[in-house]
Amino acid sequence: MDLIILNPEIQTFINSNISKSISKLALQKNPFPDVDWIRILNQIEAKSKAKDKLPNWFVAKNIIYPSKISIEQTSSEKTAQYKASIVSGHSLIDLTGGFGVDDYYFAKKIKNVVHCEINLELSAVVKHNFEQLNAPNINCYPGDSLITLNTLNTKWDWIYIDPSRRNDAKGKVFLLKDCLPNVPENLDLYFNNSDAVLIKTAPLLDITAGLSELKHVKTIHIVALENEVKELLWELHKDYFGNVHIKTVNIVKEKLETFDFILNDNSTLPNFSLPQKYLYEPNSAIMKSGGFDEVSSLYNLNKLHKHSHLYTSTDLIPFPGRIFHIQNSFPYNKPEMKSYLENTQANITTRNFPDSVESIRKKWKIKDGGNVYCFFTTDENNHKIVLICTKIS
């Protein structure tokens, strides 16, 4: 690993150009002709992306960054912190270490953490960075993680895997067998080395499809950050055959919005009604979970329609999502639209509605923005309706 990028003058230059236009900087003359200009620009761009996502890395001195794509794909510190809350014990091996953000937080809970990375250069960079971050209980092993797993021959408290899609899988339905490593194929091997396996996948993976490929799934964590689903975490325990628990988490600033339920609990029956005083829209993690009947049951809310996934009540209650005060409700037809919304400004959301937001705006000349929120949806009687609301939270 070439450490010339850590030259104090180069580091000062990188830090003084954080967040500046890379395309404009690229046109400048390289002030350090002995160092590849592209490499310096990459450090600036990658560190700029790390500012909010990886604040501990950003403020630490002498950190070396991989490509900006690696920074974009790595876990954020906030989601890594959540993952660390799942594990316990004395030892964990990460078979797909990457930039090592997850391992940094695992090491705050686990005494012995092993970071495996097949890319030798990235492994060396991560080892260097862990030294700068004062994380002495993480050991880095370059090379094939399966070889490392067999060589160490240890019974681990946890195995962690973040499989990546193979290049030849683009355009296909997202399946775990199309990823590297092939988790379904290696699952028995993993359970020979640990009784607990934690798998991170992209939100694109369908929950039903994932369950069809895996076994011994105890809990699926759906993790959103500021209402954007970032990852699914599959918690597997050897010889577990019970119900699958779904845990949705939306990390909002320093708070966690959580909602838990048992998958395929047929005892849950929702209630339905026409719009009442308040409207509730679940956060993105709940939307990904599919637990729409469970929301109605747990919070004692009425659904507007089986497929609308919007809820209503006469009394205001705390809720993991957006809450609105319904100011008006009317059928979706030309006279009503002309009277209430034509040539106005509003934020538009469609749920279980045939027209798109774009077509609604164009047809009725509705500008975007403002303090009015309009929901175009379908009620329990299968009538197309419009709800005009103000946002509470």
From TrEMBL:
<feature type="domain" description="THUMP-like">
    <location>
        <begin position="321"/>
        <end position="391"/>
    </location>
</feature>
<dbReference type="InterPro" id="IPR054168">
    <property type="entry name" value="PG_1098_Fer"/>
</dbReference>
<dbReference type="InterPro" id="IPR041497">
    <property type="entry name" value="Thump-like"/>
</dbReference>
<dbReference type="InterPro" id="IPR029063">
    <property type="entry name" value="SAM-dependent_MTases_sf"/>
</dbReference>
<dbReference type="Pfam" id="PF18096">
    <property type="entry name" value="Thump_like"/>
</dbReference>
<protein>
    <submittedName>
        <fullName>Uncharacterized protein</fullName>
    </submittedName>
</protein>
<dbReference type="Pfam" id="PF22013">
    <property type="entry name" value="PG_1098_Fer"/>
</dbReference>
<feature type="domain" description="PG-1098 ferredoxin-like">
    <location>
        <begin position="278"/>
        <end position="320"/>
    </location>
</feature>
